[in-house]
Amino acid sequence: MTSAPEFDQKIPETASRKVEFISLSHLNPSTELNPIPTCGIDLGYFREYVRSLEDGGYDYTLLPYGSGTADSFVVASAVGQLTERIKPIVALRPNTTFPLVGAQKLATLDQLTEGRAVVHLISGGSDAEQARQGDYLPKDRRYARTSEYIDLLRRAWTEPAPFSHEGEFYRFDDFGPGFAPHGSPIPISIGGQSDEAFRVGGEKADVFSFWGEPLDDLRGEIDRVHAIARAAGRTTLPRIWVTFRPIIAATDELAWRKAHEYVEKIADTFGKAAYGKQRLQQPGTPQNVGSQRALSFAEKSDLYDRALWTRTAAVTNAGGASTALVGSPETVAAAILDYVDHGADLVSIRGYDTLADAVDYGRHVLPLVRQEIAHREATGRRGTLQAEHLGNYAEDYRRHATAGRS
């Protein structure tokens, strides 16, 4: 059993003062639990899913990008018109869109959504996936390209007069002024855990993205990216985005029954390469550092901290964000608050039963976290949720966690 930390009412110095929630938009009902043949976009399902995010109180939705997926810009534009409040996050690979064109597209989206656009730049963690669309740069140079891309996005949005550029990756003459965003420059997010990712993200990104890791390990990574930002002379540090795949039920015991059922189905789906991008993943050790770290954590332990479960990462070869938080809504909300206390202020939660989970999180998890944040703002002290719902810090939870393991 993991030793419980002291749960006093003092708000940790590392704690974020606000939390915003992200989901990932799904285009059809095919899931890792139940992969089904699909034409790609089920419009009725997509509309229902996006409405569930708006109704559930999410703040953002990520529109993912891959060589075999729908175009993230087009889908983001649809999200913008189907919602009034949700901020679409466009996943964009610099190799697929010239930076000045990317700036134009993003600014157009920002105007259409009245200032809601966000971009998440993906430098590329797999040589094989990059090559599918003609990109043969080695990984370290891909991050150098991202760095140049960020500079050009911001200049395209803000330069009042035409400018020319001749860099390592891009060259053009007499561009501008470009098409401007709705108001402020569009927030730029990047992720990754290589040295190059930390350097570029710390120096230039508005948001730095992580997958769910054990608390102390993640705090070390946050300190690292913030130290790079300070060394670069930044006074506004990158916001921290962390992603989980929660598995919830009315009680911790029921959540663990669901989790063990889920992981068997997920393992079977992955073994058959039957779901989405799994068909394109390479066997063996993943190339990207984030997946390598996830597998290393999974090899050492199934469970960390209050509710972090790594078996879902192990059975998928850490193919994308795959670590779970398991428990009742109260336990999972308390676990999310642990990460808020360690410095996360953008929390992405997306499930395995995608639509049903999005609805359940909005009804049962988000309100608990927001209630605690409101309590802290009003009183200057932590509430009792984390002290009362101990998860893996209590013996019963550990018994439920191991009871269904095969």
Automatic annotation (TrEMBL):
Entry annotated with the keyword tRNA-binding: no
Gene Ontology molecular function terms on file: monooxygenase activity; oxidoreductase activity, acting on paired donors, with incorporation or reduction of molecular oxygen
TM regions (residue ranges): none
Record InterPro entries: Luciferase-like_dom, Luciferase-like_sf, SsuD_RutA_monooxygenase
Pfam families: Bac_luciferase
Domain Luciferase-like: 41-345
Entry keywords, A to Z: Flavoprotein, FMN, Monooxygenase, Oxidoreductase
Name of the protein this chain belongs to: Alkanesulfonate monooxygenase
